[in-house]
């Protein structure tokens, strides 16, 4: 009889907690059991690296979808942004250098119904009456960046002297109101408050956005303007003085938008010789002026006491004004970039509905002709061509019976988006922006033709 080797059994910690009849619970459980390997296609850690697309030679890289190729964009590193856009736009630029007189005490208080104003503001019906604002209210000037563009950042002064500018009997310059060049063809009338002292006043009229002759602008401390008018040494209580620079109406060029026309009132004790700013010629470039240099030169003699401005845009009177001084009226046009479209290939990387794909590569003339034909059909059969009140009034029915692309195309046509905007525009162009650009382009071509005829 062979002797059988007996191994001692180790009692498990779970031996007291087992189901009756269970033999395994009384003994040590199996540990460190090797896991059965599985056959998998493991690409390794390099498959998840950021530069994995640069080499496509390995077998596993062909099984990973290649990302879409997009054009280069301006990338913003979020780690380098300290403040959000809202924080940056709400930053209050501190006013540090007060170059004017001491602020006058407030004598008039405006009574207002806060509850009524709140209701109007919620309904978007609240309008600000500029006549009720205090004449030394500076927030409107900060909004249009007047002080910084006239002098330098951080410089300001308070309106301590009432100062009014009026063209004719009705047109008044009032804290950035909108005017046309035809309103300012004649010399304005000025009203200066008399402070009861033997002092003098000087008025400068500047176009803050009209300098198109200074190519280099080194820094923010040397900004330039156009000097349209200068009346100096006006006695206190009077309206007339020495005309240093004769009046020239504002000349906002076509295509440059609104120009800020500022009227600055300086006060000084004695008469000053301003012959150094007199014009040397009749050209508009001879009126290039730098108010910051002018103020630094006479800083010990003059002090700004009032400021007013308006916004003036182009009309036909600008051409007459420039022709009178022997200049041609320039035209400015926007150069619109062509829409970005990928190269046409047999199998594009990004799926796209076939109707959008065809519209992208079809000649624009064919698309315009198709929209023009559709518009004529509507005018003949319906007598009008107007947008539908709803994108699709039979949405549930059309959603079932029409293909997806055709249903979307129907809603685009009803709301007038993309190419269908031509159905509801006056001249039938793709959209309002193209219509304005095409009008400007036609004017530009006619302007070049006239210029060519005159040169011949």
From TrEMBL:
Key words, A-Z: Coiled coil, Mitochondrion, Ribonucleoprotein, Ribosomal protein, Transit peptide
Species lineage: Eukaryota, Metazoa, Ecdysozoa, Nematoda, Chromadorea
Cited Gene3D superfamilies: PEBP-like
Subcellular location: Mitochondrion
Principal localisation: mitochondrion
Protein name per UniProt: Large ribosomal subunit protein mL38
Protein source organism: Panagrolaimus superbus
GO CC annotations, alphabetized: mitochondrial large ribosomal subunit
Protein family per UniProt: Belongs to the phosphatidylethanolamine-binding protein family. Mitochondrion-specific ribosomal protein mL38 subfamily.
